[in-house]
Amino acid sequence: MQLVIIHYGEIGIKGKNREFFERKLMENIKKGLGNNAKKVYRRYGRIVAEVKDFQKSKMILEKTPGIEYFSPAKRVENDIEKIKEKVVKILNGKDFETFKIESKRSYKKFPLTSLEINKSVGAYVVHKFGKKVSMKSPDIRVFIEICEKESFVYTEKFYGIGGLPVTTGGKVICLLSGGIDSPVASFLIMKRGCKVIFVHFFNKTLHSSAVRKKIENIVKILSAYQNGAKLYMVDFSIVQNEIIKTVSSSYRMVMYRRIMTRIANEIAKRENAKALVTGDSIGQVASQTLDNLKIIYEVAKVPVLAPLSGMDKKEVIEIAKKIGTYNISIQPYPDCCSLMIAKHPVTKPDPKLINKFESEIDVEKLINQSLKKTEILEM
Questions:
Q1: Residue 187 belongs to domain spanning
Q2: Domain ends where: 131, 159, 187?
Q3: Which one, of 25, 7, 64, lies nearest residue 323 by Cα?
Q4: CA 89, CA 324: separation in Å to the nearest integer?
Q5: Which pTM does this prediction carry?
Q6: 316: phi > 0 → left, psi -120 to 50 → alpha, else beta; which?
């Protein structure tokens, strides 16, 4: 078995509810590692995992919200001489000319301070290997953590994505398109501790097995960040057919999105979700002017979160590439929101005209018909 020391960041500044966040993170780690972990437990401001295969564990831990960094480590008794020997054993055979010892003493009753530990262990390494200490740019760093009952020694740090453990923030509904933005929005909300349920709207007349596969693949990638996912596939064709009959082309985009929001309201109610999430970025396209967003969001019955609001496209693309959704998102896709709309959609809609259009449509009936035809997938 290999020992992995897991550190969190933001959780450490929590107050009386810190234990709640620690336990949630530990539960998520256990679930993610599955059979690869023999044991996962809390220890003195950190989480320790005993795993069969570090490389497999690394792939999971890098995608687990709440983790700042983690390291494959060796356990050693709280004895300075044994710590020295353990450090030498770890360094033996490694190619380096300069090194640095960095210790952290969580257990304050240990007889040496962090600085004294660094000096004592450093001198021993110099004696054993004849290498030099470098404080600024060493070839290798040795990290020592002194805890109450034991110490840990390691030489590598692998960084996670930070944030808070998934489920600590409750459930949210993400309106997932086939583009670049909404997958990134959902990832950013996962980092804030929310469990994301995905809702995708499609028009069956435009839909193909390849398109369906694209959406499923995006959700599968995102599910790795929260240990599984649920996807609602909503056939929006009935709604669109009615809107096209009644609404002028310049207003159709806004009307599509208003009814999508209403359908998402119903799904949020079923799932006991506390908010909706969109990939909107202010002013990026015609439907994302503040005037349009006001009209679209006003029908929401829960808060609407738009984590990309202040980002430009380049920033969003960088995150999409980092989380692995970009190459799938750029595949050709017939977005149902662009069906039969004007070349120049309205950017400052008239609320009275919106109300007029909606009065000519049986909105509740359309919502119910769409929900009845909705397919739910577990991933």
A1: 170-378
A2: 159
A3: 64
A4: 38
A5: 0.93
A6: alpha
